[in-house]
């Protein structure tokens, strides 16, 4: 039986979350990513891109993968949605938008909002608190060095005094809890839909490596100021669709760190609304009116589980339903790489995060890896 659902092409480093969101929105996902995990394939056709994180998406490895997928399925996507992996590739975004109808921020908007100097200047002009940035780290004060348009936290390091490496910038360290506002933008402004909190899973060479998200959480004390900032930034940069404003919150104080101009890591945790988020994203990108959703009170935590040693996935794995991004049977997960994502729901933030962490430990033990 043919699939009558409209097809949407979703591309990300790991496209499973976008494919799941498309399914919830009544769409047929056509996924392209670096993993082709089993549960991504269960949602719809998927094509794996050669290279992986270290290589990233390029015109040479991505376009042939898309062509193979569309030739195999005979599908004509009604929309193209991009996830992680394109923050530093505006020219590739432009190339893709020439061939398929992009539902998301265009190349110029992505390049502008991900330029550290331009974002800092916009924050200064709009009166939005933002940690100072520099190309030369001063001797006084604590700074972090970050890769320009980096993602996932693996590129962030404590900075030593002196010039930063090419392609990087320094940002002053400020106190606070990593928090993210999910924003729906329409090119003329943006509306905060919900907040989530994030935490890191440090490794010896990546002390700020992304771990997990929990949400929805209560708005910070500076909610009104953050909402005004999200609206102003969306208008300044012409953002469309779902984007996230990442910040540090310390009591009544807060600092905007960056905007991720795409559906982000909170999608799995926050897509528990009366109107599916990806449907709202596409509608906003097309200029249609989008009524505010009613978000469920259930707190959901998602946690990336990393291997501390090489792991061989069993030939016939039995995955609990709370395990997502499931690697293929018989595959090998190298040390330091994600094994899978675990999900947990609870009535409060602390319980949801604790349950997710317990499930991550149980997952690693089931694959023969003990905690180290």
TrEMBL record:
Pfam families reported for this sequence: ATP-grasp_3
GO MF annotations, alphabetized: ATP binding; ligase activity; metal ion binding
NAD in keyword set: no
Classification via InterPro entries: ATP-grasp, ATP-grasp_PylC-type, UCP016817_carboligase
Every ATP-grasp domain range: 226-286
Record's keyword terms, sorted: ATP-binding, Ligase, Nucleotide-binding
Keyword Nucleotidyltransferase included in the entry's annotation: no
Protein name: Putative ATP-grasp superfamily ATP-dependent carboligase
């Amino acid at each position: 039986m043919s699939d009558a659902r409209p097809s949407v092409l979703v591309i990300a480093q790991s496209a499973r979350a976008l494919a799941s969101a498309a399914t919830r929105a009544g769409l047929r996902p056509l996924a392209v990513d670096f993993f082709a995990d089993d549960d991504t394939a269960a949602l719809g056709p998927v094509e794996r891109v050669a290279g992986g994180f270290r290589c990233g998406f390029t015109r040479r490895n991505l376009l042939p993968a898309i062509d193979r997928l569309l030739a195999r399925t005979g599908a004509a996507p009604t929309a193209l949605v991009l996830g992680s992996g394109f923050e530093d590739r505006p020219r590739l975004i432009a190339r893709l938008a020439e061939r398929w109808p992009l539902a998301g921020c265009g190349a110029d908007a992505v390049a502008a909002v991900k330029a550290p100097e331009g974002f800092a200047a916009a924050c200064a002009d709009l009166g939005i608190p933002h940690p100072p940035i520099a190309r030369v780290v001063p001797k006084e004060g604590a700074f972090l060095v970050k890769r320009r348009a980096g993602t996932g936290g693996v590129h962030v390091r404590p900075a030593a005094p002196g010039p930063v490496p090419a392609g990087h910038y320094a940002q002053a360290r400020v106190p606070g809890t990593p928090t993210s506002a999910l924003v729906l933008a329409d090119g003329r402004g943006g509306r905060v839909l919900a907040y989530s909190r994030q935490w890191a899973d440090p490794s010896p060479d990546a002390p700020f490596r992304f771990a997990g998200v929990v949400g929805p959480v209560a708005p910070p004390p500076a909610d009104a100021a953050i909402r005004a900032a999200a609206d102003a930034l969306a208008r300044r940069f012409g953002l469309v669709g779902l984007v996230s404003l990442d910040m540090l919150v310390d009591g009544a104080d807060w600092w905007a760190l960056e905007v991720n101009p795409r559906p982000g890591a909170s999608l799995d945790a926050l897509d528990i609304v009366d109107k599916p988020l990806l449907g709202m994203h596409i509608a906003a990108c097309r200029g249609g009116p989008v009524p505010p959703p009613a978000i469920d009170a259930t707190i959901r935590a998602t946690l990336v589980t990393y291997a501390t040693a090489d792991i061989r996935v069993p030939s016939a794995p039995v995955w609990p339903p709370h395990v997502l991004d499931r690697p293929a049977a018989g595959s090998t997960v190298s040390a330091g790489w994600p094994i899978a994502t675990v999900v947990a729901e609870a009535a409060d933030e602390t319980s949801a995060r604790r349950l997710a962490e317990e499930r991550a430990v149980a997952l690693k033990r089931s694959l023969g890896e003990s905690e180290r």
